[in-house]
């Protein structure tokens, strides 16, 4: 099993993640307020003004137990997990019969509803891969940290 393709995927994904984080740094470092938990509308508070944004939930990272939980497995309203479910569908369509390290890794990453992520770099790589797969559909990934978890949001529209 050749892991060259998997290495290339990780490198490309991290490059895109870094570019996205750099381009949208002021949003990522600002406060994001959700207006109503049943719709996909919120706003960033940036330089004394509110910038509207549309979002969806990717998933949660349980800081205490070091477990990733996909948005598609939670009981959140469907319109807030549509892109998360699209990643699930992407994983379901991967063909592991080819014995390709990249596809086997992606299938495990995208299909397991919960999995342990012990290191921050592993979490960053996974988040970068999600961004890479959905590249044209989202602008950036916003992490919202609470005491015991980090909620990751896809931000796909900014109304400046």
Radius of gyration computed on alpha carbons? 16 Å
Largest sheet: 7 strands, antiparallel
Gross morphology? globular
Please bin the fraction of helical residues.
25-40%
State which percent range the strand residues make up.
Answer: 25-35%
The helix/strand class is alpha+beta
Total helical segments: 5
Distance between the termini: 47 Å
Topology, element by element:
Layout: H1 4-23, H2 25-28, E1 31-34, E2 41-46, E3 49-62, E4 67-70, H3 82-93, H4 101-111, E5 114-116, H5 120-133, E6 140-145, E7 149-159
Antiparallel strand pairs: 1-2, 2-3, 3-4, 3-7, 4-5, 6-7
Characterize the structure shown.
The protein has 160 residues and is an alpha+beta fold. The chain has one domain (4-159). The protein contains five helices and seven strands, in the order ααββββααβαββ. Strands 1, 2, 3, 4, 5, 6 and 7 form a seven-stranded antiparallel beta sheet that branches. The radius of gyration is 16 Å and the shape is globular.
